[in-house]
Amino acid sequence: MTQVRHAARATIVSALATAVLVATLAGCSSDDVGALPGQEKGHAGEVTQDLCTRLAAESVTRASVVTGVGERVVVIGDSWASGFGLDDPGQSWPRYLDGEVRVSGFGGTGYSHGLMARCGPISFSERVPDVVAQGADLVVLEGGINDSKSDLDEVEKGFRATLEELKGFDVIVLSAPKVKSRAAAIRPVNKMMRRVSKEYGVTYINVFDLDLPMLEDNTHLTPAGHEKFGEIVAHRIAESRSETVPAHS
């Protein structure tokens, strides 16, 4: 029965991701949003149908992989979650978390609605309803790297919208990790997420302190980097869940 249940959930998740792919193909055009996963030099920031298609396919592949057993954990993230650069996207960092883990990852996305708008409604808050439709005991949010290219007010608006969509769920917010080329721009995003997380009474976990093995682009993780990041995040989540972050009155 357990195998059947896992297979059924994997099928549902894959179907939801495929729906995102269809919407992506229908709505994709070009815009300037900064460097994106897998782009060749000279084309940074150009959101084309080909790019949207490739990132959506990667998202579908990762969403079809459900790992582990136990409480239902949903990860909503960007290209780190979807496994950009890995031969097997199913080996991306969320597989190292405890529980039965499902992943909604899409390269180039974040909390800001404008980041990849030409690829469809794929910002974090817009993905929440489908991602949690089958239930979740814990939702882990992994974003902020791409948001460092957006206006901070827009990022905060999208972050708040995501937390509003997740009211009633147990939520963990990961800070944006350190990407050296964007470190200065990431810091204010993390400061905002820490402040708003406290306001909403959700747990915020800092991962900006980590030094992780990166691919040649110095933005995405190597397989060893995914393993290290996933194991550290799992450990910090376990530690954090013994404490409660008080909401503002």
UniProtKB/TrEMBL annotation:
Residues 75-227 form the SGNH hydrolase-type esterase domain. The keyword Signal applies. Keywords: Signal. Residues 1-25 form the signal peptide. It holds the Pfam family Lipase_GDSL_2. InterPro entries: Ester_Hydrolysis_Enzymes, SGNH_hydro, SGNH_hydro_sf. CDD domains: SGNH_hydrolase (cd00229). This is SGNH hydrolase-type esterase domain-containing protein.
